[in-house]
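Technical annex, item 7. During the second reporting period the consortium partners agreed on a shared format for inverse folding records so that results from different sites could be compared directly. Each record opens with the tokenized structure and is followed by the designed sequence. A conforming record, contributed by the partner at site C, is shown below for reference.
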């Protein structure tokens, strides 16, 4: 289910702050951007990947699809948060069919939920360097009730979810498509969302390590609200470097810098942990995406803390983006928020 990769699908990323839709056209050697749009979700509509207000999401999604004049109904969406478990495990060397038949028994040793309460998938990564008779297998498990909730809100909006992915792998997909040499570097893809920061480290173009940090850019909004006695909208505006009447720029910037250190330091600590646990493998570049990648000074802060070259991820880099159809400045501005949605739109419906 998660690795299911032939018609293009709508890429639908339902985050905790925004709904993002991307539609691509297969133009042969490259894809062309056909549609891109976003809708802002009310605060706490989704908390840690769990849907709290399904009607609000369905209504916004339906309105967004109608405003973009989207005719396609088949959707590839994704899930993140604590309901998603990704683990690299060792298994005896065997073919894919044998893994298919034994993965449930094996997963029971690694999943902290009842095995009947989760949907499982796997991907064989290759022979293990630790043991000659073993191979590495990536195990993915997602709680069924969470999947059903997401499928429900999408269907209620009149769309048809045919593929459910995981944010980590959608990001990997977008990275591989847009960056030359993607299979030759050790890179960290860091998705800074409102409530969760996902860190996905790739080696040789495939999954090597992942971690979710349960803090994100909304923490900065909340600190600005609290310390400056502001409403949510004004605090969000300030967070993105847009001046607000009656608030000193330096005062706001100090609060932002002090607050952002909490999660940027966690990013640095996670990468340090990878370096010590994966002997000989060093992250060569960090790519930031998600709404938090637009924070003023975030790139230089992460680069200074990690001593690793850091840049903002551009999921439109290798796409054809027609100038007559899209405001190019808007596309550049919104690019960090579209990374997962682009990765989802690059999936194809194998059953069609």
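Designed sequence (site C submission):
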């Amino acid at each position: 289910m998660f690795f299911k990769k032939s018609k293009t699908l709508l890429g639908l990323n339902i985050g905790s702050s925004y709904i993002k839709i991307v539609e691509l056209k297969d133009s042969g050697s490259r894809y062309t951007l056909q549609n891109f749009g976003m809708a802002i979700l009310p605060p706490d509509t989704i908390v840690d990947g769990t849907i709290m207000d399904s009607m609000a999401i369905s209504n916004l999604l339906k309105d967004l699809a109608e405003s973009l004049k989207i005719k396609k109904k088949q959707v590839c969406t994704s899930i993140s948060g604590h309901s998603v478990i990704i683990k690299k495990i060792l298994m005896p060397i065997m073919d894919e069919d044998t893994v298919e038949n034994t993965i449930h028994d094996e997963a029971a040793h690694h999943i902290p939920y009842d095995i009947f309460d989760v949907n499982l998938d796997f991907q064989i990564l290759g022979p293990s360097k630790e043991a000659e008779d073993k191979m590495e297998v990536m195990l993915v498990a997602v709680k069924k009730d969470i999947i059903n909730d997401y499928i429900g809100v999408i269907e209620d909006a009149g769309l048809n979810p045919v593929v459910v992915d995981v944010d980590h792998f959608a990001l990997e997909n977008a990275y591989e498509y847009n960056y030359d040499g993607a299979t030759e570097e050790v890179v960290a893809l860091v998705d800074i969302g409102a409530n969760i920061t996902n860190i996905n480290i790739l080696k040789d173009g495939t999954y090597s390590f992942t971690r979710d940090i349960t803090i994100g850019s909304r923490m900065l909004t909340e600190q600005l609200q609290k310390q400056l006695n502001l409403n949510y909208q004004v605090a969000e505006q300030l967070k993105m470097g847009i001046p607000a009447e009656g608030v000193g720029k330096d005062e706001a910037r100090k609060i932002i810098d002090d607050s952002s250190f909490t999660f940027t330091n966690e990013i640095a600590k996670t990468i340090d942990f990878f370096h010590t646990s994966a002997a000989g493998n060093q992250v060569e570049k960090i790519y930031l995406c998600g709404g938090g990648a637009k924070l003023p000074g975030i790139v230089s802060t992460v680069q200074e803390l990690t001593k690793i070259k850091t840049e903002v991820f551009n999921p439109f880099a290798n796409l054809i983006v027609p100038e007559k159809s899209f405001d190019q400045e808007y596309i550049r501005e919104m690019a960090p928020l579209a990374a997962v949605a682009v990765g989802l739109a690059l999936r194809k419906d194998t059953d069609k």
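The CA atoms of residues 48 and 294 lie 21 Å apart. The chain has a mean pLDDT of 90. All partners now use this format for quarterly exchanges.
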